[in-house]
Amino acid sequence: MHHIYVVLISILFAVWSPAGPAVPDRWSSWPVSRVFPPAVPGTSPSGARVTYVLTGVAPEAPCRAAFQPGAVRALPACVTALRATYADSTSTFVATVGIAVLTGYGEPAPPGGFRPPTVRPVAFPGGPAERFGERQYFTGTVVSSHERYLVATAAGYADGRPYRPGDRAGSRLRGIARQLAVELHRSLTG
Known about the structure:
Elements: H1 2-15, H2 26-29, H3 32-35, E1 39-43, E2 49-57, H4 63-66, H5 69-73, E3 78-88, E4 93-102, E5 137-144, E6 149-157, H6 169-189
Antiparallel strand pairs: 1-2, 2-3, 3-4, 4-6, 5-6
C-alpha cells in the first residue's frame, strides 16, 4: 500500500508542478505560444482598448542579426534572440518584439530619441506586417530587469509609411512599444 501512495504522489508531482521551469529556461522550455501569446490586451494611441494579435514568429536568430547595432553593443551577454510581430486589432499599428536571452544579468544602455536602437523589425507576408521593416519603425523601447531576458520592441504603421526625422508619430507609437515589451517581459519573468 505504501508503494501505491509513493507512486500516486510522484505522478501528481509530475503532472502538477506549480513552479514550472526556472526563469532562465522558460524561453526554451515553454511552447512558442506561451513565449509569444496569440493575443495581448492593450490600449491604442487614442486610448481605446485593443488586442494586439500575433502576425508571425521568426526563427531563432543570433543576437547580431536580430538586434540593431547600437542595441547589440549593449548586449554583450546575449546568447540568442527570439522575435515576433504583432498588429493591433484594427491592423493600423505593428510592432516587433525581440527577446534577448542573456547568460548573465544585463543592464543595457538606455535608448534615447524616437528611434532608439532596439530589435530589427520582422515582416510577415500576407498580413498587416508585410511592409514593416527598418525604414518603417518609428520608435521602440527596451525593458529589462535582473533576470536573464531583455525585451525590446520596434513599432510603426501597418501601411508601410517610412519614418522621417521630426515625425511626431513616434510619440503616439511609444505606448504600443512599451505595452508589448512590459507584458512579454512580465510573462517570462513573473
